[in-house]
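Checklist before submission:
- one chain only
- standard amino acids only
- sequence pasted in full

Submission:
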Amino acid sequence: MLAVSMPDRPRHPNKEVEAAVAAAEAKGWRWRSMGHWGRLFCPHADRDGCQIGVNGTPRNAEDHAKQIARAVDRCPHGKEDTNEKI
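Returned file contents:
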């Protein structure tokens, strides 16, 4: 089990959604508090970047976690893009 420090954001109350958010953060995505729980922004720090809303109390947490993981995987902006704009 990996010990991950998360001073920036609170843990999500559901373990599947928390794992999906942590996986997104490992790929360079950033979390920002908005609404009931938050929003994830892809590494492409521009208005064209991808974003995903993360619900604090999803109706089906397992499906919500899968939606987050799918959106992160489909994002055309990889972690590599963050270093290209200098």
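Reviewer check: The chain has a mean pLDDT of 84.
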